[in-house]
Design brief:
8-stranded mixed beta sheet, Rossmann fold, 12 helices, 258 residues, alpha/beta, single chain, 24% strand
Amino acid sequence: MSKGFDKRIVSYERLHSIKPEDFQILIDAISPKIGEVILDAMCGYGAVGKAVLEKEPKSEVYFLDESSVQLERAIANVQNVDNDHFILDSLPHDNFQDDFFDTVVIKMGLHEVSLTKHLEILKELKRILKPDGKVVVWDIMLNDSTQELFQAIIRKKDELAGFDLLMEERYFFREDEFIKNAKWAGFENRKDYHTISYRFSSLQRLEQELGADREKLKQLNEFIRDRFNEDLKEKLNYEDLGDDIRFTVTKKIYILKE
């Protein structure tokens, strides 16, 4: 089976059409200060941690990812950070000391695991945070009408792309499931900090994920068409442009504290 993130060598800023102003709001939510210890968890190629260090060079940033390929990308992408601050492991990672981090940030990572593992991760983050620390989460926040639809579409895309483990492990949660797990993990203070309208585009997946195979893009588009009724088309601002299908779902930035 293919280890998804060892194969998925993409630019997430481009793939997800991330607006610079939204990314800046994420860094503002992290709000790094001199001497703070920050974890870029599920870091990929380290874009968040790198931006944190650019904002506050005297903060101390750790980078954690389960993919050796992605972590090597992070090492190449981020300068002047000791090698022992790059950690090859998955969450929960129980080698961190209690009350160690001021901030943990997970950008587009919690949906990569099951809902049960999601809760385990949040509990572990609660343990490694300082009493006045915070978790900053950027992720897709679905609801009853969008969860099954989006899950099915991404699973089909992963199947066509050959990302076998991603197909098995990913769970795109509802916002109410996220809030419930955060509460169960001990985060009583949950701030809905920022909302992002994410415009999904099937064509954007062609080069970076479908290997420029237009037959696979055609299959993905047919799959999407078959799953949209008129009500969903209106709710999600659906557009069918032939070789590109677009629709809108919500991402949010949450800040979690005790």
